[in-house]
Model the fold of this input.
Amino acid sequence: MQQKVSMSSLAKMFNVSKVTISKALNDKEGVSEELRSQIKKAAEEMGYRINNAARGLRTNKMYNIGLLIAERYMGKTNSYYFGVCGKMVARLAELNYSSIMETLTDKMENELVLPMMYTDRKIDGLIIIGQLKNEYLRLFHDFDIPVIFFDFYVNEGNIPSIVIDNFYSGYAVTNLLVANGHKEIGFVGNIMTTSSIQDRFLGFYRSLLEHRLTVNYDYLISDRNDDGHLIDLVLPEKLPTAYVCNNDEVAFRLVQALNEQGIRVPEDVSIVTFDNTIYSTLSTPALTTVDNNVDEEINVACKVIMKKISNPSKVYDRILIKSFIIERDSIKKLN
Done:
């Protein structure tokens, strides 16, 4: 019969106190990263599991993190945030926290209904994934549990935000098009809906200004209504030589819309996009895209929410995650 693994046995193994073992397993300060890694590895190999229920009785915590996401981000075709949620649940589990995920309907958002996992007092902290309406987000100002925003930010309040550097990413992919000889470049995305789309557009705009190129507003295509729901793409009568799309799914739909009119990618129109999701490789041709470094974004978000739970007075602002471009086959080099 396998011997039960306890903090005491781990402490004897490493010749340290049970307090040190507890700090290492719970990612608390006061333990070197090398020792923390060794303790966690040994605990996992020996089958040690933290009893969150017992731990909760001692600390008056639930050891649950809430994940709140709008229903519109979890549609049949929207894979990005679905994948984010799965990875975030796994990362929190590695950090010995359970997750409770709740979807927010349009009705709940419009009527300012707080998530049930909060009103039922089931969570110690909350991660809001994807931008919601400002009126709803104001509910979380001066909240009584820690809250962070994932993949968006707002100017109101003092809630930490974990985002990729969308401005620089938009700037960099537009520079790539210009470097390939493109001077007439359009943008696909409703810039009134999310901070991510706005910053990607502003980076696109900055690149055009820097290269003394004109922003032709006839080339702008909206991809969603003001409530954030995707709409059909309406192509302009005259097309640019290239488009910057605000995400892979929209770029995939743009390729389809162009093909239906006999317009080829990249022979007639080049496309760059963001997120490096399955849509960027399902497309023909495969799309040049920005990889958001989402694993690092998730890792930082999980660590920040846990530190806020341990020390609610700790202040964080907007944390930017560096992204990178993956070049594929959707850009034509012009003379």
